[in-house]
Amino acid sequence: MKNSMKFFTMLMVAAVTFLFVEKGVAQPKAWPVPAGDKSMKAPVKLTDQTVIDNGKDLWAKHCKACHGTKGLGDGPKAAALKTKVPSFADAAFKSQTDGELFYKTSKGRDEMPAYDKKLPEANDRWGLIAYMRTLSK
C-alpha cells in the first residue's frame, strides 16, 4: 500500500510538471507593466508603411532569431533558451497594449534583451511594435 501511494504521488507530480513545463523549457511568467507605460501611445502612426518597413528590417536583425520569421516563438535560437518564447498569434499577445509591448521591448527581462540600449531611438522600437502587430494578424 505504501509503495502504491508513493507511485501515485510521483505520478501526480510528473503530471503537474508536464502541464507547466514543455520540453524542459519554463513557461513565461507574468510580466507586469507600470500603468503609465501600459497606457503609453506611439508618437508615430503604427499603420504607416514606412514605420512598419523600418520595424521589419530591425526585426530581421534583432528579433527573428528567437521569435521566428512570423513571430511564433520558433526562431533557431528559441530552443536553446530557458524560457519558452511566446507566440504573437496567441490571444495573450494580441490583448497587450502598444505601451505594454513598447515597455517590454525597451526594458527586457531575463533572456529578453533590453532594446532601449541596442536601439536608443524610441521610434525604432515603435517600428518594431508596428511590425509585430502585422505578425499577429
Task: Please explain how this structure is put together.
The protein has 8 helices and 2 strands; from the N terminus they run αββααααααα. The chain has 137 residues and is mainly α. The chain has a two-stranded antiparallel sheet with strand order 1-2. Helix 3 packs across helix 8. The protein is globular.
Question: How many β strands by DSSP?
Answer: 2
Q: What share of residues are in beta strands? A: under 5%
Radius of gyration of CA atoms, rounded to a whole number: 18 Å
In round numbers, the mean pLDDT is 86
Task: Tell me what the CATH architecture is.
Answer: Orthogonal Bundle
Write the layout of secondary structure elements.
Blueprint: H1 2-20, E1 21-22, E2 25-26, H2 35-38, H3 49-62, H4 64-67, H5 91-94, H6 98-107, H7 115-118, H8 122-135
Antiparallel strand pairs: 1-2
Helix pairs in contact: 3-8
Q: What's the gist of this structure?
A:
This protein has 8 helices and 2 strands. The chain is mainly alpha-helical and 137 residues long.
Features:
53% helix; 137 residues; single chain; Cytochrome Bc1 Complex, Chain D, domain 2; 8 helices; mainly alpha
